[in-house]
């Protein structure tokens, strides 16, 4: 297995020539960090993710013989995938789950839509750390979907691509992920978080930067991600379990309140009134989702008002709710959050992603970033023996394709939003 090193278009093309021969086009899709709104997307709630400038790249060259060959530089492995349409299934070719399921799932979902897939060679190279809660899986699915549709000359709009990637991951990679990750990989916007309503799939871009240069006093803090380097084995199974618990909550609440279709239809007062009729664990799961939705709305407004203190408080409340009510944090994440809170210049810290390891996201004043980095690395290492990775991240645009005009520099063209 190789480290995920930053890619250059020239390097990717050279890698592609070595593995497959010929000149590829290059597509890429970003990972994301979710600022607040955890475990709300699959409950038709609100989220506030930012696409980040760590990408999964897919170098692609069309074939006309119906073969789909895929190479991952991370796993240093090439696989050939069947591209005959089959019934939706969670059983991948060979029977075992592997990285190529995400690509296979995308191909299957394209075929199910009646899209032509004449065949392709694909080289995948990722900079998004795998399994760290920064959504390498959606970036992989989106980069592959963009590459396959572009190389077949049948481009799809970003919303179709996002829903297709979600379905591919749900049905072919065995993860019941929500829409947030593929949506952000498609619609991410440099300089903005997306306040996404996962029920209507409409969003409001929320600026991360001050728009008036004179607004120096409210200079944007930095988003700093701390990777615990831990991923507990139960992460995937507990994720699916939480989804099932929320579904049980919806079913129980719908018996009392017939209009309820999702937790989005329930107010906190209604939930409190129903408490005696609900299992205690289910009540807490539902309470997290409802209070988290309210926190996302408040956090988006706080960001628009440049009220970073308030935003930071909401991050802290989110973390507590994820610990106590949703029970998806772990010692390493709690330690990272506790350490961050010891420092001046940190507005807020919380776990991000599904939980049970992965990363925290921190809102840190620009002049405090270097001290924060050193302190977090040292103290986390002292306490756990692990060296954390710490990323000061830049926001990014959603998935795009590299355009190269003869004699000109290279530029990335966003997928059309029309
Ligand atoms: P996350 O999306 O938070 O990173 P997931 O468990 O959802 O975590 O997805 C991680 C999986 O996605 C990996 O185990 C692997 O199968 C696949 N994946 C992500 N990036 C790559 C890559 N660069 N090459 C091959 N597979 C990848
Ligand atoms: Mg994922």
Describe this entry's structure for a reader.
The chain is α+β, with helices and mostly antiparallel strands. The chain folds into two domains: 9-204 and 396-403, Ribosomal Protein S5, domain 2 (2-Layer Sandwich), CATH 3.30.230; 209-393, 2-Layer Sandwich (Alpha-Beta Plaits), CATH 3.30.70. Helices cover 38% and strands 23% of the residues. The chain is built from eleven helices and 14 strands. Strands 5-4-6-3-1-13-14 form a seven-stranded mixed beta sheet, sandwiched between helices. A four-stranded antiparallel beta sheet has the order 10-11-9-12. Strands 2-7-8 form a three-stranded antiparallel beta sheet, with helices on both faces. Strand 4 (68-72) and strand 5 form a beta hairpin. Helix 10 packs antiparallel against helix 11.
What is the element layout, followed by pairings?
Blueprint: H1 9-19, E1 25-34, E2 46-47, E3 49-62, E4 68-72, E5 77-81, H2 101-112, E6 120-126, H3 136-151, H4 158-172, H5 180-187, E7 192-197, E8 202-207, E9 222-231, H6 235-256, H7 268-274, H8 280-304, H9 308-324, H10 331-341, E10 346-352, E11 357-364, H11 369-384, E12 389-393, E13 400-404, E14 410-414
Magnesium ion binds near residues 135, 137 and 181.
Helix content: 25-40%
- Biggest sheet architecture: 7 strands, mixed
Q: What are the segments in which pLDDT stays under 50 over at least 5 consecutive residues?
A: none
Strand content: 15-25%
């Amino acid at each position: 297995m190789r480290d995920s090193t930053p890619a250059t278009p020239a390097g990717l093309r050279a890698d592609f020539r070595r593995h497959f021969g010929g000149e590829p086009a290059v597509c890429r899709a970003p990972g994301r960090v979710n600022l607040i709104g955890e475990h709300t997307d699959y409950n038709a709630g609100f989220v506030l993710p930012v696409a980040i400038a760590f990408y999964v790249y897919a170098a692609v060259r069309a074939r006309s013989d119906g073969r789909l060959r895929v190479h991952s530089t991370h796993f240093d492995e090439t696989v050939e995938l069947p591209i005959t349409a089959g019934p939706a299934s969670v059983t991948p070719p060979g029977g075992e789950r592997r990285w190529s399921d995400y690509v296979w799932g995308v191909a299957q979902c394209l075929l199910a839509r009646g899209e032509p897939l004449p065949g392709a060679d694909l080289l995948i190279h990722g900079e998004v750390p795998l399994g760290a809660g920064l959504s390498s899986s959606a970036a992989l699915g989106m980069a592959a979907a963009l590459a396959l549709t572009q190389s077949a000359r049948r481009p799809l709009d970003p919303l179709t691509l996002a829903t297709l990637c979600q379905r591919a991951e749900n049905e072919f990679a065995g993860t019941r992920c929500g829409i947030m990750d593929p949506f952000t990989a498609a619609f991410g916007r440099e300089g903005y978080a997306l306040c996404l309503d996962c029920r209507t799939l409409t969003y409001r871009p929320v600026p991360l930067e001050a728009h008036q240069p004179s607004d120096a006093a409210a200079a944007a803090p930095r988003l700093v991600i701390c990777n615990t380097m831990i991923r507990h084995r139960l992460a995937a199974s507990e994720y699916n379990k939480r989804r099932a618990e929320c579904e049980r909550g919806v079913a129980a609440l719908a018996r009392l309140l017939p209009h309820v279709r999702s937790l989005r239809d329930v107010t906190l007062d209604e939930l409190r009134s129903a408490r005696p009729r609900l299992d205690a664990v289910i009540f807490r799961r539902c309470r997290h989702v409802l209070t988290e939705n309210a926190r996302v709305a408040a956090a988006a407004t706080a960001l628009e008002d440049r009220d970073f203190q308030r935003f930071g408080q909401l991050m802290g409340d989110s973390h507590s709710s994820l610990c106590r009510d949703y029970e998806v944090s772990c010692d390493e994440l709690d330690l990272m959050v506790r350490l961050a809170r010891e420092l001046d210049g940190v507005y807020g810290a919380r776990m991000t992603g599904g939980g049970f390891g992965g990363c925290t996201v921190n809102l840190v004043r620009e002049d405090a970033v270097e001290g924060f980095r050193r302190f977090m690395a040292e103290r986390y290492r002292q306490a756990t023996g692990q060296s954390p990775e710490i990323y000061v991240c830049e926001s990014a645009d959603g998935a795009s394709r590299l355009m190269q005009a003869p004699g000109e520099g290279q530029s990335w063209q966003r997928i059309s939003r029309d």
